[in-house]
Amino acid sequence: MLDKASLKILFESLERLDAGFAALPVFDARVPGANRVAETLAETAERLQDNYPYFHPLYAGQMLKPPHPVARLAYALAQWINPNNHALDGGRATSAMEKEAVAGIAEMFGWREHLGHLCGGGTMANLEALWVAGQLAPGKKILASEQAHYTHGRISSVLQLPFAAVPCDAHGRMDLAKLREHVAGGEVGTVVATMGTTATGSVDSLAGILELREKYGFRIHADAAYGGYFGLVGNLGDETRRGFDLLHRVDSIVIDPHKHGLQPYGCGCVVFRDPGVGRLYKHDSPYTYFSSSELHLGEISLECSRPGAAAAALWATQKLLPLAKGGEFARGLEDCRKAAVDFHQRLEKDARFLTAFPPELDIVVFAPCAGSVGEASERSRKIFEAAARRNLHLAVAELPTSFFEANLREMKKDRVSLTCLRSVLMKPEHREWVGRIWEILGEATEEVVGQ
Ligand SMILES: Cc1ncc(COP(=O)(O)O)c(C=O)c1O
Predict the structure, then answer these.
(1) Which three-class secondary structure state does DSSP give residue 110?
(2) CB-based contacts of 76, cutoff 8 Å, min separation 6
(3) Which atom belonging to ligand 1 lies closest to the Cα atom of 266?
(4) Is 59 in the pocket of ligand 1 (CB under 6 A)?
(5) Ligand 1 neighbourhood includes 224 CB (under 6 angstroms)
(6) Integer Cα distance of 301 and 408 in angstroms
(7) What one-character DSSP code corresponds to residue 186?
(8) Which element (helix H / strand E) includes 166?
(9) CB 121 near ligand 1, within 6 Å
(10) Residues 132, 300: Cα–Cα separation, whole Å
């Protein structure tokens, strides 16, 4: 985990940064408690040991992984300035970096013109997208699938917009026939298309949603918080590929650089296809926007103070690893996909396990076979614990039994939902580690099933 060479790079970069301020008179910085910093940090390190090893390939549970070293270093470097990207006064360089980095993301989606910015994360970014949607269609309903992130319902309630969850098909995607019924009923302002659900990585059929938009007219917001970067990869299934190829036709997109974009938390991003929505943010802040007539990011963002360090980290990462199809960054994601496909195939071929549908991105859900869904659910929890004792960290998810329907064989359907195991294989290293993960999973399963 510890990469000492990177600390040397940080030190050298800090000296370079410092040189830019060499003309200032020297002063004695007041740092209360300076002589106790080392001991306090040592204690902090002790406390931080109480964590799952997110950086290690044997952590194959939730959507968690370490940032790229360049992001971590750029963030740390920027901390010596601590810029605030609310206004140009607070962060001149990092405001420019944010605009460039966000333009890079918009371009990845095929938008040359756009309006967008960074924010705390996917929830805040979706809040802004739905706030804009609500301003444009006051009082109209927001629709998202039953597998969409739980915050869409809550955000709608914060915005006092009516919300309805559309059922999913057996692949965890929004059921288009059900969506049609909803939109035909009228009063729908916005449909949220999830481009990679949190639980299973399922991608809603954008082609179908766009077709319905032609007939019924509504706004489309794409929640690509998790899946957004997968448009760059060359190894998606045909249907999934088609969805990402159509993404430029939606009205707004949310993507989380702090998920697959190699960034520290919190770095979310919202982009709008029509820059004209900037007018909705119009507000006065008489004590803020005085240093420049150029756009201050606070003028197009709901949040006020935001870390310029997040922009520096993202900018540096995109500089090192451009968001290009076939590039190094894309190849890392392709390895995650390969890991997921490999893992799913092993599970499918093994009579001890029950799979759902093949992974669309890099998330695999599965369960141990048993006499009934209830028994399989119990076993899932036990395998989760037995694997953790062997340092393999998976996640547990409660999913509709219908997702597993095609593979249930003689299992008794005594429950409508199945507690299953879930693996987010979001580190490129997972590609080489699937074999080891498979071995440990086998041992943990034997321990539980052999009881
Ligand atoms: C599809 C999707 N949308 C939104 C979110 C919320 O993002 P955040 O946790 O960054 O607020 C998540 C988080 O997992 C997600 O997977």
Answers:
(1) coil
(2) 10, 309
(3) 10
(4) no
(5) no
(6) 48
(7) S
(8) strand 163-166
(9) yes
(10) 11
Task: Find where tokens 């000492």 sit.
Answer: 4
Enter the tokens of residue 235: 């190894």
Q: Which atom of ligand 1 is nearest to the CA of 126?
A: 4
The letter for the amino acid at 14 is: L
Dihedral angle sign, alpha carbons of residues 217, 192, 233, 95: positive
Q: Calculate the alpha carbon distances from 423 to 80, 313, 363, 430 in Å.
A: 37, 27, 6, 11
Tens-place pLDDT, residues 103-160: 999 999 999 999 999 999 999 999 999 999 999 999 999 999 999 999 999 999 999 9
Ligand 1 contact, 226 CB (< 6 A): yes
Pairing of strands 252-255, 219-223: parallel
Q: Which residues of the chain have pLDDT under 50?
A: none
For 133-146, b/e burial (b = at least 16 CB within 10 A) is: bbeebeebbbbbbe
- SS3 for 84? strand
Using only C-alpha atoms, the chain has a radius of gyration, in whole angstroms, of 24
DSSP 32: T
Task: For tokens 């599965």, name the residue.
Answer: 366
Query: Are the C-beta atoms of residues 354 and 333 closer than 8 Å to each other?
Result: no
* Ligand 1 probe mutation, 127, 130, 151, most atoms within 8 A of CB: 151
Token pair listed for 177? 């026939």
**Burial class for 148, CB neighbours closer than 10 Å (0-12, 13-18, 19+):** buried
